[in-house]
Task: structure prediction
Amino acid sequence: MKRNVSIDKIKAIHKIAMVLIMLLLVGCNSGSDQSQPIANPPNTPNTPGSTLPPYQSPGQSGPGATSSPGGASKPACPNACLWIPSGKTQAQVIADFEAQNNCVVKQDAGIGAAACQPVAQMSVSSNYLNIKLPEFEGEVPQYYNDSKCNCTAGIGHLVQHGQCPANLAAPGKQKTPQATDACVKDTWWKSPKAFPGASVSKTQIETWAKQDIAWAERLAKQALSGKNVTQTEFDAVVDLIYNGGFSKYYSIKTDLKSGNFKGAIQENTRRGKNNHLQQNRVNFENSGLSEGDLCK
Result:
């Protein structure tokens, strides 16, 4: 009889374990601070600056291997949340999950943004460069003369001081009065009398954007020197600097250097109100600053 009771207990524990696993596979409890999204962990070779050694799942023949011992490719793991117990790293938990489910965790761009990395190795993300910055600054995929009659294109990139030369006009428009006469402002599609600028490729716009924010990246690294940061945090600090956030009238720069991220958020919020800045841009910056304590 005692043996049967023990077997029943084992079966009950097994059922509870299966239920817990199913709950994990369903998704995250957003209110929990012990569950983390499945993703390649920050100590894999894909993420520089890690302090942990890279892991290998059972059966892997080398970094990044995605095949089982028999040579067949493993499927991608399902989206899930895992509890990371004390004494285990995220990498170990994920490796166990891969082995138990015979699957491979795929790199997810959103997860890479959550990893802490030395600020010296950071650069802005493609999401910031290609989506957020154009959203905040505006993007014009052609040459045009700005409000001061300086030749401009892309995300406010200064092509040259003074009006656009005729050779930067669209094909067939290079000898028109709008291209050769005294400066005409605005873009071609806003005013038929504006400079009929040639189109600019997305690749060129991105190249210019990288050049234009390089100074803000340098200042961000100086302000956060010696710290580990998340990608979201770094993007936010770069944008804050690019958007005039290191003004002497606010203590944001000092707050960042001292690690007072709550103070930086308060000062940036005050700066936004005083200067009537785009609220979505201030929110973006503050959201990144709120991750400042994650990597301490």
